[in-house]
């Protein structure tokens, strides 16, 4: 017997389902080991160790997710774990699987070292040589000269991923907040680490941090109000209070419990915090700046994974906690969805930078996904899950292409420089065109299957209006996707245009995977639709 | 299980496209032969379909049915009726000629430096044509609406690259300006059709919701929907049916194209090379009119009857407006494009007259218009390549220097104006008869289109082929053997179908009867006319 047992009777022994929570634990554990590697391993060994560690950890975590799902944890064995703080059910496991795969593929993007020209004989990646060095200062020059690289990116990314894995599984409001912070803080840092255009990158990070902190504050305030309303932080507990189950009134909260004003304001603030992470209008302002300034591998990872995690959390909150007040949030989210679809699509038309264009396109897609969320049905959940899986790989692939198109100043993200790319490197331009067509929802790509899934779920639930707006927005969006294709294939190449760097097999295989997923989910989506369909029920 | 003939007909060009694209950049000629072989194999398969089809048999024949995406109720269901058979045959027979006509269209210009090691325009051009062929055939044979929709929409992408990537090099403008116009045409084509497709997507989703209460869940299968309606399991509310009809019809009207959503066609046909222009108007656009017959009338009979007056008026406007604008064109290819708009008016008029003559005529019209336009446009393309200009005013007296070219051009033109003895006459006559029996006034207005057709064709011929020989044309070569080999069979087909249309009408007629019974219409009794 160890010392823990002495506390029995005084403190409640934490019940902890190690197996059910293993995916998250593995990822976070690997992140901690990564930090230790940074502290103790010699500099020249760090890169290799970190990459291997991250790859192994993610592979194991994915195996754990598959094992849990095969064990029935996604359906019959779904449970609430960690003393009510976390749910292990279909949607959580599905999204965790998607997130781990996205993280796995992103590691290859992070680890790519053949794009930047070698600095003083050492291969370097797209991240700053030394984050603490002032841009343009002597310290930076020294760091570059010594061939420093920031291998901290790997543990940071694993920490962010750990938070993301918790986010859609969070089953009480406190865990929701902790997961949000765990996923956000490393991302703020990662955004600031670009090797090129460091000031732009730092500006992006500061913007992201300030606005993100603001959104977190809203979320936290909302949590406090909801606690005041329900006297509990657990999703199921709040839902019970909303549906009228008589709460055991806490004398300290007697003044606020059951007061609908607290519920409405608190619910609105929490949803607002999540919509910020999702990047839906009118909480989208940060997206273009951050997407543009962050190092492109980070942008890809963030754009894909944050959206998956945040939509997962939003789904659980709306479906488990707030179904009782559906009539209150539905009209608001209708407005948000319509505004996101239209504003994202329309503003994207005027963009001249590839990364900003993709940022606005992601806003429009947030609107499409919200249409699925608004179906408020099992079909709605599974369609959103499928859409997120399809969307995240297309996004990763698109940003991976952006990392490859370079000129003397690093990535050539201005659209005018992409003119005639299709003539110089038809294969890469073809792959990018495939991703754009998937974004546009052209049949036989994953984007179409996803769009059909969410729109049909929405239409089935009587939201034909959303579907029609969605279709109009898709037509507008098609215009700017097509414009990029026109530019790549039909415009004459510029004299001093960018060239496509031949990457290492890591980026190549990553692009191959993204393209393959895009086509497979478009041509034969049934298996994955089934998977998402079986994962459509939340545990309470 | 029998040999999946329809799947094979779709796969042959698709595999051919991949094979063509895979040919290394230096072996341009090999790519051309690979493409031609693939298109010939497809043609043989299509003729096999034609032979195996029994006109008196089941409505849909050579059927194949497999589950595809059960979650959406989507099946991989193929089958042909008489109308589809005729159009599959048209497509598969035309493509080898288009490949022959475009043999040198995509080669790099002399002295032009290759843009990159991997840039292979010739391979791309032929692969894209085959890709379009595969998708068009698929949309003719698909009897699952979702399956149809996917290929209806996906075919825009290769088509778009064909228009934007391989424009006509013979324009009145500088290279740069031309590239801009070409891009404009390609984008206009894509956006019009994509918008139509997305409207249709809303209708497809609507259909998914409307059929959700069936015992087997949502379905897109034409046969399953027809059975459910016959047994009364499935009924559409009046408004639902009308909205769904509109969603489908607008998409098909854009594709067809019908006035007032026709404006992309002249741009697209004017800027693309002649074979691609033929591909657009003779093959791809037929999917629009075909789909009106199969889906609009077949699925939404009441809404079709409700919309008929408006559609007929639009079709009449198309006939007259297209012909008038054709008269006013300075550019040969745009003239043919506007003539096509006029002809599509006739086809749609025939479909919505809701008589067996009208619809049989409309189907024959699709086939004949395809062949006649191909003949006229391809010869015009040969002419334009020689002179390097699309403007009618730049020509004159060609018949003295290049008599064979002028002769084939004349026959193509006469077929376009529906001269008796050529195929289009039969179909135009049937459409007009079919229209007269139900809507006499519409029939009279449509006849004006014939007169105008005679005008624009003959004036075109007169201005370009007759008169004094222009000095710069005095050494113009006549048709080369390759060009003649492309045009002669087309002309032979036109004349054969003009004199002996029977085999085709026998195939088409039963299918038309089925469609009419779907709509619940029968031909007006002739005696009514007598009493009046």
UniProtKB/TrEMBL annotation, chain B:
Q: Does the keyword Transmembrane helix apply?
A: yes
Q: Which residues cross the membrane?
A: 31-51, 83-104, 124-152, 189-210, 243-265, 277-300, 306-328, 335-354, 366-384, 404-421, 441-461, 482-500
Keyword Membrane in annotation: yes
Q: Where in the cell is it found?
A: Endomembrane system; Membrane
Ranges for domain NADH:quinone oxidoreductase/Mrp antiporter transmembrane come to 142-449
Q: How does it sit in the membrane?
A: Multi-pass membrane protein
Q: What is its main location?
A: membrane
Q: Which family does it belong to?
A: Belongs to the complex I subunit 4 family.
> This chain belongs to which protein, by name?
NADH-quinone oxidoreductase subunit M
Q: Which organism is it from?
A: Streptomyces spiramenti
Organism phylogeny:
Bacteria, Bacillati, Actinomycetota, Actinomycetes, Kitasatosporales
């Amino acid at each position: 017997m160890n010392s823990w047992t002495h506390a029995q009777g005084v403190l409640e022994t934490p019940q902890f389902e190690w197996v059910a929570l293993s995916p998250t634990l593995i990822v976070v554990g690997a992140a901690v080991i990564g930090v230790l590697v940074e502290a103790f391993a010699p500099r020249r060994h760090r890169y290799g160790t970190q990459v291997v560690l991250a790859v192994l950890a993610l592979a194991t975590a994915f195996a754990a997710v598959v094992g849990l799902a095969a064990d029935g944890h996604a359906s019959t064995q779904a449970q609430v774990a960690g003393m009510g703080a976390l749910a292990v059910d279909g949607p959580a496991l599905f999204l965790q699987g998607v997130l781990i795969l996205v993280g796995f593929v992103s590691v290859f993007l992070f680890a790519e070292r053949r794009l930047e020209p070698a600095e003083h004989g050492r291969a370097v990646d797209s991240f700053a040589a030394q984050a603490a060095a002032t841009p343009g200062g002597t310290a930076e020059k020294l760091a570059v000269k010594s061939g420093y690289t920031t291998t901290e990116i790997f543990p940071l990314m694993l920490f962010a991923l750990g938070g993301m894995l918790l986010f859609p599984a969070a089953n009480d409001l406190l865990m929701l907040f902790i997961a949000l912070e765990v996923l956000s803080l490393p991302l703020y840092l990662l955004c600031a680490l670009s090797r090129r255009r460091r000031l732009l990158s730092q500006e992006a990070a500061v913007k992201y941090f300030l606005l993100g902190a603001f959104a977190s504050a809203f979320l936290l305030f909302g949590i406090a109000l909801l606690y005041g309303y329900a006297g509990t932080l657990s999703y199921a507990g709040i839902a019970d209070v909303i549906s009228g189950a008589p709460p055991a009134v806490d004398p300290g909260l007697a003044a606020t419990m059951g007061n609908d004003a607290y519920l409405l304001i608190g619910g609105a603030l929490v949803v607002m915090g999540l919509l910020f992470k999702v990047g839906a209008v009118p909480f989208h302002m940060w997206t273009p700046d951050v997407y543009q300034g962050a190092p492109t591998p980070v942008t890809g990872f963030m754009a894909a994974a944050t959206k998956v995690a945040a939509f997962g959390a939003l789904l659980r909150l709306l479906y488990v906690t707030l179904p009782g007040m559906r009539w209150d949030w539905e009209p608001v989210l209708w407005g948000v969805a319509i505004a996101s679809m239209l504003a994202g699509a329309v503003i994207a038309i005027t963009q001249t930078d590839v990364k900003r264009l993709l940022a606005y396109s992601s806003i429009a897609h947030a609107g499409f996904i919200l249409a699925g969320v608004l179906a408020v049905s099992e079909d709605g959940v599974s369609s959103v899950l499928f859409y997120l899986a399809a969307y995240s790989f297309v996004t990763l692939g698109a940003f991976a292409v952006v990392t490859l198109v370079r000129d003397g100043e690093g990535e050539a993200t201005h659209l005018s420089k992409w003119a005639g790319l299709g003539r110089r490197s038809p294969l890469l331009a073809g792959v990018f065109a495939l991703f754009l067509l998937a974004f546009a929802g052209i049949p036989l790509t994953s984007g179409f299957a996803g769009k059909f899934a969410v729109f049909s779920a929405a239409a089935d639930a009587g939201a034909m209006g959303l579907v029609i707006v969605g279709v109009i927005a898709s037509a507008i969006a098609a215009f700017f996707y097509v414009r990029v294709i026109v530019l790549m294939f039909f415009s004459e190449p510029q004299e001093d245009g960018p060239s496509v760097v031949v990457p290492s097999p890591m980026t190549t295989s990553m692009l191959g995977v993204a393209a393959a997923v895009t086509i497979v989910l478009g041509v034969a989506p049934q298996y994955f639709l089934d998977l998402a369909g079986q994962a459509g029920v939340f545990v309470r | 299980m029998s040999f999946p003939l329809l799947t094979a007909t779709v796969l042959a060009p698709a595999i051919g496209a991949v094979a063509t694209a895979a040919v290394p950049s230096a072996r341009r000629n090999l790519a051309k032969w690979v493409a031609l072989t693939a298109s010939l194999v497809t043609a043989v398969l299509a003729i096999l379909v034609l032979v195996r089809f029994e006109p008196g048999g089941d409505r849909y024949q050579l059927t194949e049915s497999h589950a595809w995406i059960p979650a959406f109720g989507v099946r991989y269901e193929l089958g042909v009726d008489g109308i589809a058979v005729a159009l599959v045959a048209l497509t598969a027979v035309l493509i080898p000629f288009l490949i022959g006509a475009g043999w040198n269209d995509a080669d790099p210009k002399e002295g032009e430096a290759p843009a990159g090691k991997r840039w292979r325009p010739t391979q791309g051009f032929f692969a894209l044509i085959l890709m379009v062929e595969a998708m068009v055939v698929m949309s003719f044979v698909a009897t699952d609406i979702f399956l149809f929709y996917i290929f209806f929409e996906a075919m825009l992408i290769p088509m778009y690259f064909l228009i934007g990537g391989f424009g006509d090099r013979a324009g009145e403008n500088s290279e740069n300006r031309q590239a801009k116009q070409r891009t404009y045409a390609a984008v206009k084509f894509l956006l019009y059709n994509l918008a139509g497709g997305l409207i249709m997507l809303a209708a497809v989703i609507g259909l998914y919701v409307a059929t959700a209460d069936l015992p087997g869940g949502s379905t897109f299968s034409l046969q399953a929907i027809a059975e459910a309606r016959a047994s009364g399991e499935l009924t559409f509310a009046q408004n639902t049916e009308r909205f769904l009809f509109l969603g489908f019809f607008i998409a098909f009207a854009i594709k067809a194209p019908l006035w007032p959503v026709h404006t992309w066609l002249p741009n697209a046909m004017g800027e693309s090379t002649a074979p691609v222009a033929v591909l657009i108007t003779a093959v791809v656009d037929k999917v629009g009119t075909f789909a009106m017959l199969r889906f609009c009338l077949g699925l939404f009979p009441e809404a079709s009857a409700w919309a008929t007056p408006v559609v007929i008026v639009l079709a009449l406007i198309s006939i007259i407006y297209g012909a008038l604008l054709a008269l006013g064109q300075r550019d040969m290819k745009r003239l043919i494009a506007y003539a096509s708009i006029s002809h599509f008016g006739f086809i749609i008029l025939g479909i919505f007259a809701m008589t067996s003559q009208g619809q049989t005529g409309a189907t024959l019209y699709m086939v004949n218009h395809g062949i006649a336009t191909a003949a006229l446009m391809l010869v015009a393309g040969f002419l334009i390549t020689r002179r390097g200009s699309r403007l009618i005013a730049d020509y004159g007296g060609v018949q003295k220097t290049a008599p064979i070219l002028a002769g084939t051009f004349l026959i193509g033109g006469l077929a376009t104006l529906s001269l008796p003895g050529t195929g289009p006459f039969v179909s135009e006559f049937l459409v007009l008869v079919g229209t007269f029996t139900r809507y006499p006034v519409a029939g009279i207005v449509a006849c004006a289109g014939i007169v105008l057709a005679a005008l624009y064709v003959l004036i075109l011929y007169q201005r370009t082929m007759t008169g004094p020989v222009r000095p710069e044309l005095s050494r113009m070569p006549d048709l080369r053997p390759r060009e003649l080999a492309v045009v002669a069979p087309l002309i032979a087909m036109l004349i054969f179908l003009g004199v002996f249309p029977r085999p085709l009408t026998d195939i088409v007629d039963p299918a038309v009867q089925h469609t009419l019974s779907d709509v619940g219409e029968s031909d007006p009794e002739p005696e009514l006319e007598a009493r009046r």
